[in-house]
Amino acid sequence: GESWTKAAGNTVAYTNAIAVTPHNNILVSGFLGLYSSNDAGATWSLILDDAGTSTMALTGSTIYVGRYARISRSTDFGATWTVFDLAPDVGYIRSIAFNSQGHIFAGSSPTGVFRSLEGTNWINMALPGSKVQIIRIKNNDHVFVGTDSALFRSTNNGSNWTRLTVGISPF
Which residue from 89, 81, 29, 74 is spatially nearest to 55, judged by alpha carbons? Predict the structure, then answer.
C-alpha cells in the first residue's frame, strides 16, 4: 500500500465489486458494465456492456452480475451471457452470494432477498425491512443480510429470519 496506480482509467465509473478468477483474471463491476483484465490491470476489456450494473459475484467459472430488475449469468468467464429479467418492482440487485448447497441469494433494494437454485426461477424470501445492502453466507450456510435499518440471520436458507440486536447499536 505504499504506492497506488490508477488501473482502469475512467472506464469503470462507480466500482461496486471486484473479484479474481481462478486463472488470475481481475473482474471489476461498475455502473457502465463488467470489465476484465488478464495482465494485472494494465489493460481492460468490457465483457458485459450493461449500464446500471450494481453488483457482481463469482463462483468457480460462473459470474453473476446484478442490475435493476435483472441478473446476468456467464458460465464461461464472460464469453457468453444469459439474462434473467425479474419483475420491475424488484429494484436494484445490491448483493449476490452462494451457499454450499448451490443456492444463489440476491438482495435487492427495495424488495428484499430472493433465492434460486439454477438462476432461472427466483423466490422472494420475505425479509422484513427489505432494503438489502449486503448478503454474506457463513461456512455453515447461515445467511446474514444487512439492510438499511437492521442485520438479519437465517439458519434455514431464508425461510425464516431473525433480527440480530444483541450488542448492535440501533440505526
Answer: 29
Residue 167: pLDDT band (50, 70, 90) is low
**Separation in Å, CA 108 to CA 31, 95, 99:** 16, 7, 18
CA distance linking residue 21 with residue 25, whole number of Å: 5
Closest CA to 15 of 23, 44, 3: 44
Name the amino acid, one letter, at 117: L
What is the rounded distance in angstroms from the CA atom of residue 156 to the CA atom of residue 130? 18
In this prediction, residue 12 carries a pLDDT of 61
Cell numbers linked to 66: 446484478
pLDDT bin (cut points 50, 70, 90) of residue 139 is confident
Alpha-carbon distance of 77 to 156, in angstroms, equals 30
Determine contact, residues 20/10, Cβ cutoff 8 Å.
Answer: no
pLDDT band for position 107 (cuts 50, 70, 90): very high
User: Do residues 66 and 51 lie in contact, with contact meaning Cβ atoms separated by under 8 Å?
Assistant: no
Q: Cell 483474471 belongs to which residue?
A: 25
Angle at 39 between CA 33 and CA 42, to 5 degrees: 70
Between 54 and 127, the higher pLDDT residue: 54
